[in-house]
Specification:
The complex is a heterodimer of chains A (about 280) and B (about 325). By secondary structure, chain A is an alpha/beta fold. Chain A contains eleven helices and seven strands. The longest helix of chain B is centred in the last third of the chain and has 17 residues. The chains are: A alpha/beta (about 280), B alpha/beta (about 325).
Chain lengths: ~280, ~325
Amino acid sequence: MNTLATSTASANTDSRFVPARLRRTVLEMAYAGSTVHIGCAFSIIELVSVLYRNHLRYPGNDPRADGRDYLVLSKGHGVMAQYACMHELGWLNDSHIKNYFADGSELKGLSDSRISGLEVTSGSLGHGFSVGVGIAMGLQRKGGEQKVYAIVGDGELNEGPIWEGALVAAHHRMDNLMLIVDKNGFQAMGTTDEVLALGDLSAKFNSFGFETLEVDGHDESSVDAAIRQLWDTGAGKPKALIARTVKGKGVPFMESDNRWHYTRLNAQTFAEAVDALGLSGAAK
Amino acid sequence: MRDAFSNTLVRLALADPKVLLLTGDHGYALFDEFRKRCPNQYINAGIAEQNMVGMAAGLARVGFRPFVYGLAAFIPIRTVEQIKLDIAHDALPVVLLGDGAGFVYSHLGTSHQSTEDIACTRAIPGLQVLSPADRFEMTACMEYAFATNGPVYLRMGKSDRGDVHANPIDPLQPGRLLKVRAGRADRPCLIASGSMVRTALDIAQEQDLFVWSAPVLKPLAVDDVCAAVRESTGLVTLEEHSVLGGLGAAIAEITSEHEPTRMLRIGVPDRFSEHCGTHAYLLHEHRLDTDSVQKRIKSFSDVLASAVRTAIPL
């Protein structure tokens, strides 16, 4: 197992996608829509922040550009994190945030491919990764440099098609595909160890033929460096980034408390959660 | 019929390099020609149908035209959710090929038999459903499926029952019934699909009945169904599929709203096969053999002729 121990140089020159601000957007949406799945979004905030800031290419800032990279959110439950980034990109406006879950509104509680910027309809787990494998296969056949990132929950790894897709990705040498596991250690009804133990994920993906790295999923510099290292090594192999994360990360009373898979915000918890983000006036 | 399938697929693939054939490790011999002529467009996705259907969605998303092949017991049945969510939801141009539908795998038992695939696929929004009866309909269905440029399920059933059309047929139109045989208007007419069109034709020749083939099961043209009703005293539907949710149900949905008539739905009763045997044996077990069907149609005709609305013997 390769573990990236130290942070390397940050490419943090883009003032967008500041994690605390993304979390603030998630909280605003969750409060406006009285939604669940806050913890699921918070665990992947730094992952999507780094991906959108440093890696995903959208020619012309067009979410449907032919030459784009693909971010497949297979764990559709984290979609508010992606909405927050799409808001920063100008693909969603303030009205989308304020009217989340309003009758007749567009944005749903799980990833829906009909929304420009979202690539798959997921949340029924074990779907998005296979679609991502197909996209990667298609891009591979076309040639070129486009890449596919698929964020998969660790609970989602219970689903069989993930492992079918992993076999196919390695067999077809899809080195344009990166599987990112949001290893927050929880699934709907308990910890992953309690429900269905996953064992050593790095060893598993290595044995499937992936180039694998494990990283602190909340350390932006480490995440960024690990992504670069994975693309630079293991030619002919699909990539797996095992991101150790904390469900509910960023708001202490939500962290590693699985109730925030299900709990809705009230005026008080919303205010407390926003305070906990510690945003300065400028960042707000 | 299988040659017509293979030939059409090869022709489409040679004409358009975006055509890809994905198979779940099935199609021994059937794809010899394809593999020889279009080796780079052939993908054996392994015995992993759920991932294969998801992958097909991904390939379609970046511009490819996948044909996804499996046994009907797996494509579509094992993968109904992937078809619904990954393909149909976004109207992606993927053609799903379900082979061996009905009782083709008569000796292998329930795992390889499929009598619920039409019912399951019909209910998926935007998914068209095709069921060719002979080689001419197979060619037309394949061309129609490709030209549709959207999600299609093409059901491939018992393929060695002979032609029902004398010549190649015109390009299919959405939902249109094909007249296979004209008959007497003072008797019930037969609407059949797939392998049962041949059975319908054999019986109709004896009793001088109209026969319509329905190679496109979804959508179905309301006008054509109503016209068939008006040219007959009642309708008989025939299919190697459950009586629940298939052709008979689809026709009944239309007639009950637009042109009420008496109907006899001939298909697989709501049960699994009990025994092992030849395809003909299983048809007999489910009372779909020609003799059984002929008797049921005759008694239905008699009931209609008597003009007394008594219960129709089942």
